[in-house]
Design goal:
Blueprint lengths: L3 H15 L3 H12 L4 H8 L7 H37 L17 H15 L3 E2 L5 E2 L1 H4 L11 H4 L10 E2 L5 H9 L4 E10 L11 E11 L4 H16 L4 E9 L2 E10 L10 E9 L1 H11 L10 E8 H9 L12 H4 L4
Parallel strand pairs: 1-4
Antiparallel strand pairs: 2-3, 4-5, 5-9, 6-7, 7-8, 8-9
Helix pairs in contact: 1-4, 2-4, 5-11, 8-10
Bound molecules: 3,4-dihydroxyphenylalanine.
3,4-dihydroxyphenylalanine binds next to strand 7, strand 8 and strand 9.
């Protein structure tokens, strides 16, 4: 049988096979299968055929439509994979990739790691407390009542519920003694906050390392020995350390600690790096009151405490002129410590 539909199919298949790109293929699809395409036109003609012819031609029409559709799809698939391999051919897989940059530790973190390593060798464990504190932990428990002038010097940021951003890490002294029995030997590094005017040496957020040692017969000699050892390890053996009498409400006696070393930039003069002292008996008594026991009997236990200014130590150690650099995230600055 050589029905016109079969001729149409042969013609369509030939034409599809001969198309050179996706656009020409689409034109061929429209020509044969489009709404007014020649194969579609046969569907209309079906009505004019007599009853016996209709199923035969109907089946043939279906076959032709399927064959032509399949041929178009196959040809389209060829064009698609051709397009893909053309795109891939333009990629030079021998070119070096974009390397993931390796970060480095922030100078404050490096400073902290060094400090922790030194204190660990002296048997200090790490302790922790929240940045958002109660007034009691920050002041009252540290022998600093509401009318105490030290509260003005340490003005901070208050939350509506009365809590505050801690003005020093000394809060962790209290938190540690609330939850653990003596003897105690801890350091507590962390952020502290004050309503300071920001300049090269002041920041509203800075960092401290608190230390607390409570045992029987702890003396000022122990305090001096521990902190001199620390300063020598950190800044070098030829560093001079000075304990200058000072006042803190929660220690008695109290000292500020200065260092001086020719090896340090700007180290020809004394630089203040810490506050320290012997734990005030009133602090032990307030802790006992909160605990509801007599675990920190001031007749039995003594202790020393200190607060190191970590930003200050890092600025001396790495010769950094401005405290604001720590928080600015300037890669030109940070890369110098990679
Ligand atoms: N908390 C004090 C401050 O921020 C520093 C300090 C002084 C801490 C004496 C102490 C201490 O533990 O004994 O200025």
């Amino acid at each position: 049988m050589n029905h016109p539909l079969e001729q149409l199919r042969a013609e369509a298949l030939r034409e599809i096979e001969a198309t050179g790109d996706a656009q020409l293929l689409e034109a061929a699809r429209v020509k044969y299968l489009g709404r007014s395409g020649s194969i579609s036109a046969w569907g209309e003609q079906m009505k004019t055929l007599d009853k016996e012819q209709r199923p035969i031609v109907g089946k043939l029409l279906n076959d032709v439509r399927n064959d032509v559709t399949a041929a178009i799809e196959e040809r389209a698939g060829k064009f698609r994979s051709q397009k893909d391999s053309d795109a891939l051919a333009k990629i030079d897989i021998s070119l070096p990739g974009t390397a993931a940059e390796r970060g480095s530790l922030h100078p404050l973190t490096q400073m902290l790691d060094r400090a922790i390593a030194i204190f660990r060798r002296m048997g200090f464990a790490l302790a922790d407390g929240p940045d958002i504190e109660t007034e009691w932990h920050c002041f009252d428990a540290l022998n600093t009542p509401p009318d105490h002038p030290a509260r003005n010097e340490q003005d901070t940021f208050y939350l509506p519920d009365g809590r505050l951003l801690r003005t020093h890490t000394s809060t962790v002294q209290i938190r540690t003694m609330e939850s653990a029995l003596p003897p105690i030997r801890v350091i507590a590094p962390g952020a502290s906050y004050r309503r300071d005017e920001v300049d090269a040496t002041h920041s509203a957020q800075f960092h401290q390392i608190e230390g607390l040692y409570v045992d029987e017969n702890v003396s000022v000699a122990d305090l001096k020995g521990a902190l001199e050892f620390f300063m020598h390890e950190l800044f070098g053996a030829d560093t001079a350390v000075r304990f200058r009498p000072h006042y803190f409400p929660f220690t008695e006696p109290s000292f500020e600690i200065d260092v001086r070393s020719k090896a340090l930039k700007g180290g020809e003069q004394w630089i203040e790096v810490a506050g320290s002292g012997m734990v005030h008996p009133a602090v032990f008594e307030e802790v006992n009151r909160a605990r509801g026991d007599d675990a920190y009997d001031p007749a039995k236990w003594t202790g020393f405490a200190f607060g190191l200014g970590m930003d200050r130590l890092a600025m001396i150690l790495f010769d950094i002129p401005d405290i604001r650099l720590f928080a600015q995230n300037d890669l030109r600055f940070l890369r110098q410590f990679a």
